[in-house]
Design brief:
Low-confidence stretches: none
Distance between the termini: 39 Å
Strand content: 5-15%
Helix content: 55-70%
Number of helices: 5
Strand order of the largest sheet: 1-2
Number of strands: 2
Shape: flat
Radius of gyration: 20 Å
Number of domains: 2
Mean pLDDT: 77
Largest sheet: 2 strands, antiparallel
Length: 111
Amino acid sequence: MADRSKAANKKRAQLWRYHIDTWSRSGLAQNAYCRANNLKSNRLTYWKNKFKKQHLPVEFVQISSAQISASHNFQPRQGLRLNVGTGFQVEIPDEFSNATLTQILHVLRQF
């Protein structure tokens, strides 16, 4: 019985991974994709978050502000760091062009 349940869960996960991959390449809004494929949007969100959590780091280390201040190479960051999903990180300095940032955000919305 447990083997049947594991197989069913694996099959369900494969189905949702397929839909998430297909949706992300489609360029459609999540709700539009779900309507077109007779899916519930909240279930797509559930599985998207479930898969995302599987790729998060498993361990965090707390560092005190005293340790950071004591660092010889410490330089405060300026600008903006943009994390997109689990795969992209964009660092934007203060003097970055607004037009270029707009183009980058347009491209990232497609993911």
